[in-house]
Amino acid sequence: MEESQELALTQLRKSVEKLSSSTEGYEKPTLMRFLIARSMNPNKAAKMFVDWQKWRASMIPPSGFIPDSEVKDELETRKMYLQGPTKSGQPLVVCKVSKHFPAKDQLHFKKFLVHVLDKSIASAIQGKEVGDEKVACLIDLQNITYKNLDARGTITGFQILQAYYPERLSKCYILHMPGIFVTLWRFVCRFLDKATKEKIVIVTDGEEQRKLEEEVGLDALPEEYGGRAKLTAFQDVLLPLTTP
């Protein structure tokens, strides 16, 4: 297995060079994420890697991260929370959808999503980034109304995650799914790849709730969901200036 991985990594590096780019500065764990996301196909992984490099260059400012000030209006809704670490040492991102409303400016909304993902991953870094840090997510649909429904925003979030953050999501828990969200979710699922679908758990009964508590851990899980932690809004979490 190790030998086949090394061969695939060598082929990936060569394929990236053929696409007029370079893997210099990127360690094995980072490159393996792209290979795993493309079923260990070096050529497909190389294209994904180069597309990701170009996307980062166009989306992220020279500082290496999108500051709070650029997405202040989205943060002020206090719909996103950063908890953790979970039992497996991962950050837990909590989204209260009842505080979300569809964005008028889609580019601005994408920057907010990138800000959330980058900061979440950065919070998992212990000293130096390894490259395979993962994030768990909890989506709370309690008390949502039709005004909160956002098929476009939901699809955009998952597409960014799949295309530019391969193998970063460990698990996504969806709680309190009401009937008004079911049709929208079926539509969203058309845009999800198999690997993403397998990481999504819709918590509907006591057994799934027990698994949520066991996997996340009561110390990381907020009180609202059966744990012992207090919710911490995204902007209230201070991190060193480290970016993935």
TrEMBL record:
PANTHER family: CRAL-TRIO DOMAIN-CONTAINING PROTEIN, OS03G0850700 PROTEIN. Signal peptide: none annotated. SUPFAM superfamilies: CRAL/TRIO domain (SSF52087), CRAL/TRIO N-terminal domain (SSF46938). This is CRAL-TRIO domain-containing protein. CDD domains: SEC14 (cd00170). InterPro entries: CRAL-TRIO_dom, CRAL-TRIO_dom_sf, CRAL/TRIO_N_dom_sf. Transmembrane segments: none annotated. Residues 68-233 form the CRAL-TRIO domain. The lineage of its organism: Eukaryota, Viridiplantae, Streptophyta, Embryophyta, Tracheophyta. PROSITE patterns: CRAL_TRIO (PS50191). It comes from Brassica napus (Rape).
